[in-house]
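Lab notebook, entry 385. We have the chain sequence and a SMILES string for pyridoxal-5'-phosphate, and the next step in the workflow is to get a structural model of the bound complex before anyone spends time on docking refinements. Request logged below.

Task: model protein plus pyridoxal-5'-phosphate, output structure tokens.
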Amino acid sequence: MIPFINVRAQREAYLSEFKQAEQDVLDSGCFIGGPVVQTLESELAEFTGAKHAITCGSGTDALTIALLALGLKPGDEVIVPDFTFIAPAECVMRLGGIPKFADIDPETLQVSAESITKLITPKTKGIIAVNLFGQCAPYAEIQECARANSLWLIEDSAQAFGASQNGVPACTFGDISITSFYPAKPLGCYGDGGALFTANDELAKKIRLIANHGSQTRYIHEICGMNSRLDAIQAAVLRVKLRHFKDELKKRSENTRKYDEFFAEYNRNISSAQGSASHFANRAKIVPQKIADGNTSTYAQYTVLAEDRQSFIAKLDDAKIPYCIHYPQPLHTQPCFKGLAQACESASRDGASNAIEASQKVVSLPMCAFTDVDEIIARLRKTTI
Ligand SMILES: Cc1ncc(COP(=O)(O)O)c(C=O)c1O
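Result returned:
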């Protein structure tokens, strides 16, 4: 059985380091916050070049804390991508804000700055850009749009800690940037975890306050905050993984290169078989997500756009290759956002949008540093996809 993400192989590879780090925390008696968490925060700041790195309970919490720190009020509008995981829109809605859904680029699948611009109204307060599947959103344009309209920018890098754009590391593009350490993420822990990044000292102070019950001094609560802290055991796991993270990113890139070569050959065979008796003549193309010029990706997902998704999925099932659909419907069509559809720019193109098309074509294949892509490709060849 091929795992979609091989967390077991990763644990085996660094087992003695994990065991030592976990035992040290258990023996220390310090389970929340403390020196291991502080050291991890310094290492995260050093890795990204961000001035402040502040850990918290999850990526979703990180988004909520960021919105609170930036002063989101009920009725404020925030522009989010229509095609992504629900968390950005959900957090806006939870705090009484109104998410407005921007369309995406059809090839990179990143949120479109042009679509964001069309959604700005006098009520718009900010933008949450998502680094979807591991590469950065188009920040030159998004930052310009935010600046020109006096909006704040949150960079949701839940899937892209370790990516870069024109040499600038992810987690440094927003007024506040966030990431997630959910186990399936490229840098994941053994439970929930997240972090916020900012260059702004005032925001960093607010973030720490909010994440810790609004308190700096024990039992003195300056504001109403929340409880969102990273456990020391998760920090210890992350510190081990961070030591190997650059090597893992290289392996993820190498796995991607193999997949890309396979699908390029597959699509060439289709093109040259047109009108012939070859079985390729009636196949539909399968095109990997495009990585934009200047971007490096963490390949949090290896996602392709399949013209005929149903038959591709049938072949994957035959070959016993696991897959995921990230994501089966755009956010503006989710039941929980019913009534907000008119706030969706992507719905304005006669009901069609790149987000809708992507949701009908995407398929994600197994991807991590320990994925046996050679075996997957061999199986794909056997099923003559
Ligand atoms: C783009 C994006 N934002 C936020 C989150 C939320 O992260 P968490 O699961 O740690 O709450 C995720 C998790 O999948 C995500 O993919």
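Notes for the group: Residues 232-273 form the longest helix (42 residues). Worth checking against the assay data. DSSP finds twelve helices and 13 strands in the chain.
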